Structures are given as structure tokens and as C-alpha cells.
Amino acid sequence: QLQACGGGLVQPGGSLRLSCAASGSIASINIMGWYRQTPGKEREFVARVTTYDGTTNMADSVKGRFTISRDNAKNTVFLQMNSLKPEDTAVYYCNAHWGGSWYWGQGTLVTVSS
Fold first, then answer.
1. How far apart are CA 106 and CA 32, in angstroms?
2. Distance separating alpha carbons of residues 6 and 8, to the nearest angstrom
3. Got the DSSP string for 58-104?
């Protein structure tokens, strides 16, 4: 299973760091990433990291502001979010791929508001 945490309320321009740890019967994790969703909209891709070589992909909307990283030894992925904007407000979900399947965390709410 995946457990995400780190969400909360932050003012515009502020920062938050999300983390997501995988636990249980885990084979070698290939990819870990983040998506986000707001009410009435489809879940959208935010960032992903390939665990074996650290290759990252970021959505255009967060490039230069968000950074994804991973700790392979702890099966954990992080999302450092800087220069947050009100439009970043969403429920953030982590996901991971191992053993031929995708797994999703429960989501953590990020609210950017003054």
C-alpha cells in the first residue's frame, strides 16, 4: 500500500513537501509519481520518477516550481512544492508501479489560499 502525507494549508508563494511511502509485499518498484485532482475535473499528472536511474518527468504547469525525488531504500517518493499558486489547490495522489501493476495512495489535500 501507499501512504501519502504532508498536505495542508499554505499561502500563495509558500512551500510544502509531500511524501509517499510504499509498504507491504513490494517487488522492485519501477516508477513512483504524483497526480492531483480538483472537484469536477479529471485526475492530472504532476510528476514521476524512474526509480532505477532517477529520470524525472514534470507537468508543464509545475516545471521550475516542483521537484520530485525518491529514496529507494525506503520506497519513498517526495514532492517538493515551491512558489505555490491557488491553482495548485487539489487532492494529491501518489502512485507506484511494481510487479506489473499500478498502486495508488489515498490522497492528501493541498490548499493554497491567503
1. 14
2. 7
3. E-TTTTTTEEEEEEGGGTEEEEEE-S--GGG-EEEEEEEEETTEEEE
Check if the beta carbon of residue 102 is closer than 8 Å to that of residue 96: yes
Spatial CB neighbours of 49, under 8 Å, sequence gap ≥ 6 = 31, 32, 33, 55, 56, 57, 68, 69, 70, 77
DSSP state of 41: S
pLDDT in tens, the chain (114 residues): 899 999 999 999 999 999 999 987 666 889 999 999 999 999 999 999 998 889 999 999 999 999 999 998 889 999 999 999 999 999 999 999 988 889 999 999 999 999
First to last CA, the chain: 34
Furthest C-alpha separation in the chain: 43
